Amino acid sequence: MARIAVIGAGTGAMAAAARLAVAGHRVAVYERAETYGGAVRRFERDGFGFDTGPGLLHLPAVFRDLFLKTGKEPLESCLALEQVDPASRHLFADGTDLSLPGASRAGVTRALDAALGAGAGERWGGLLDRARETWEATRRPLLEEPLPRDRAGLERDPHPAPPGRRLLGLRRTRPPGTLAELARRELRDPRLAALLESHALAYGFDPRTVPASAAVLPYLEHTFGSWYVRGGLRALAEALYERCRARGVEFTFSAEVTGVLVENGRAAGLELRDGGRVAAEAVVSGVDARLLYDRLLPPEAGAPPAPSPTAAPPGHGRFSLLLALRGPRPEGTAHRTVLHAADPATERAGLDADFGSLCDRPTVTVLRPGDPALLPDPGHETAVLSVTVPPHAPGGTGAEGSLDWTAGGHAERFADAVLAAAGKAGLDLESRLLWREARTPADTERETGVPGGSVPGPSLAGAGGAFLRAGNRAGVGGLYLVGGSAHPGGGLAHTGMSGALVAGLIVNGDDWRGSQ
């Protein structure tokens, strides 16, 4: 039995804590905030409740496995999961209205052909078939195993070329370098291209910079479906916290870690803001990898191993507009609606250049769960409108890749633009508005401590390894990384996988290569 100290109570950290406790270790979690869950939080006012982090769950098998391995009670005995169907509704600037069924490739093909014209479903299906090859090639090294020391194979983009080009030897031009370029080349319809790019934006990626391998993201959703947790995604964090406590994990809140103690080249414990010290034989860090290496480790610990957490492209943030609405949710309303912006040559959001290009043509995701647990009574409704935006930085401008979300009325002005976009798309929300609450990357940074309030996406192959996350093993012995900034990256399912990987390394040794 080892004493293990965990920094942070995010989902990845709690996933590791629960598994380690079941393996017989003494686990103590130290969290700077007053509650658990990291970015998986809830905002409450006047009887309304809103998820302020992720609103849907993908790959629920990750958490089913976690609850099975940490006790007799399966996940569904602790909370209610509902598959979202239709998986999404898409409204395009030209008036096209597309609803995609959940986890049905044939249904998606029929829906695309009906809404976008014959052949659209075939082109989309062909792209997803190639994305399946990417999934099969990268599933183990990117999801099921610790990040390998030799990453050459993950630095190349595995997304294959269309079969016709390979067979006829027509690949004289270079392969697409980004997802946006892939969309233009293969889909040949701006609406299909926008559909593909919206999946990247949902994970905080800019389609213009993310590698073509990001096409695996819609493949995963179409294959495994999208799921809602009744009571909101915060209910998942609550269930995970209770599972940890039931397995003997100790939690200390309002306990900010200011340093990792290192003795003889190994992590030996933690130093807290109040001056206290915690001895440990292993440390699991659930904070952003940049904070760990830049602020918590002593200088003599040395540089972080590749890939460096400071070398990856800066993550984007998430702007959320929480709406309390009078009147019940209209019958037939989709749980998730994506509003696709018009071409920039014909329409702009009306914002000045300081907001940056991500904000100028916002792709807005609207979540309307209609969950009675989040409402004061059946005569009301909630809606959460979210957009991928530049991260927060004091004095930053959108043109520089970051924005000062606390200055110049930026939050309210952007909230007006987002609400106007919903109205232009035909969603009658503003006339029913009781009140609204804007949540910016500055709020995320304040609550979670993540620099800029950025939202890390999952690890992706290609782009020379730029979209790989920090390895689960630190350069210091006995120190491990979990959470969205660590391998295999962001998203609830991926952070849950990071917890499983770290627990496997601690229990089985640093040479462990994952479950076979």
Count the DSSP helices. Answer: 15
Structural class: alpha/beta
Percent of residues in beta strands?
15-25%
- Terminal CA distance reads 25 Å
Biggest sheet layout: 7 strands, mixed
How many strand elements? 20
Q: Helicity level, as a percent range?
A: 25-40%
Q: Give Rg in angstroms.
A: 22 Å
- Assign an overall shape: globular
Low-pLDDT regions: 166-172
Strands in their spatial order, largest beta sheet:
8-7-16-17-18-15-19
Q: Please, what is the average pLDDT?
A: 91
Describe the structure.
By secondary structure, this protein is an alpha/beta fold. Helix content is 32%, strand content 19%. It contains 15 helices and 20 strands. The protein has a seven-stranded mixed β-sheet, sandwiched between helices. Helix 7 packs antiparallel against helix 8. The longest helix is centred in the first third of the chain and has 25 residues.
Task: Considering the chains and any ligands shown, give keywords for the structure.
globular, alpha/beta, 15 helices, seven-stranded mixed β-sheet, 32% helix, 516 residues, 19% strand
Short description:
The chain is of the alpha/beta class and 516 residues long. It has 15 helices and 20 strands.
Produce the secondary structure layout.
Layout: E1 3-7, H1 11-22, E2 26-30, E3 42-45, E4 48-51, E5 57-58, H2 61-69, E6 81-83, E7 88-91, E8 97-100, H3 105-116, H4 120-144, H5 152-155, H6 163-168, H7 179-187, H8 190-202, H9 216-224, E9 226-229, H10 234-246, E10 250-252, E11 257-263, E12 266-272, E13 277-279, E14 282-285, H11 289-296, E15 317-326, E16 336-339, H12 357-360, E17 364-367, E18 380-389, H13 410-424, E19 433-439, H14 441-448, E20 479-481, H15 492-508
Parallel strand pairs: 1-2, 1-14, 2-10, 7-16, 14-20
Antiparallel strand pairs: 3-4, 5-9, 6-9, 7-8, 11-12, 12-13, 15-18, 15-19, 16-17, 17-18
Helix pairs in contact: 1-10, 1-15, 2-15, 3-4, 4-9, 7-8
